[in-house]
């Protein structure tokens, strides 16, 4: 599909740009809010989890998004650790055997975690942005949800 990815309905409401004629009436509406991160996560990943929940628009992230948020939070923690390593060692380090300058191994880790974070945000229609492109079986829209209600007579 060409063009920009559509924004989720909830984001459009928050921004004040929601137009009734452009609402996806079949957009999934998952239940249950996300709360605390899983116990197994490192403190850095838990911090990223809480940051995402704190900064996300209210009611946007749901339990359905848990696995994607787990991946994102763990990748964010590893990314931060790699960036700290790059700060300490620089972009180039001496090769162990020859001493010739080579790319820091932290740079490869940071790049890979950035890719994982990006993919986690768009995978399988679980993220709020990609959710607006998913259609579910039609329910009978209520009068307030039906963009044609004003002209139907």
UniProtKB/TrEMBL annotation:
<dbReference type="Pfam" id="PF05119">
    <property type="entry name" value="Terminase_4"/>
</dbReference>
<dbReference type="InterPro" id="IPR006448">
    <property type="entry name" value="Phage_term_ssu_P27"/>
</dbReference>
<feature type="region of interest" description="Disordered">
    <location>
        <begin position="128"/>
        <end position="153"/>
    </location>
</feature>
<feature type="compositionally biased region" description="Acidic residues">
    <location>
        <begin position="142"/>
        <end position="153"/>
    </location>
</feature>
<protein>
    <submittedName>
        <fullName>Phage terminase small subunit P27 family</fullName>
    </submittedName>
</protein>
């Amino acid at each position: 599909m060409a063009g920009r990815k559509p924004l989720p309905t909830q984001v459009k409401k928050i921004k004040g740009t929601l137009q009734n004629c452009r609402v996806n009436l079949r957009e999934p509406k998952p239940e249950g809010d996300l709360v605390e991160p899983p116990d197994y996560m490192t403190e850095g990943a838990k911090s990223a989890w809480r940051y995402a929940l704190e900064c996300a628009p209210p009611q946007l992230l749901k339990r359905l998004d848990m696995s994607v948020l787990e991946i994102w939070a763990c990748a964010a923690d590893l990314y931060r650790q790699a960036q700290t390593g790059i700060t300490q060692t620089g972009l180039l380090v001496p090769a162990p055997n020859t001493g010739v300058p080579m790319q820091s191994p932290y740079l490869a880790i940071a790049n890979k975690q950035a890719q994982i974070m990006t993919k986690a945000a768009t995978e399988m229609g679980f993220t709020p942005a990609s959710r607006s492109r998913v259609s579910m079986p039609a329910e009978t829209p209520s009068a307030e949800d039906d963009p044609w209600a004003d002209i139907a007579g």
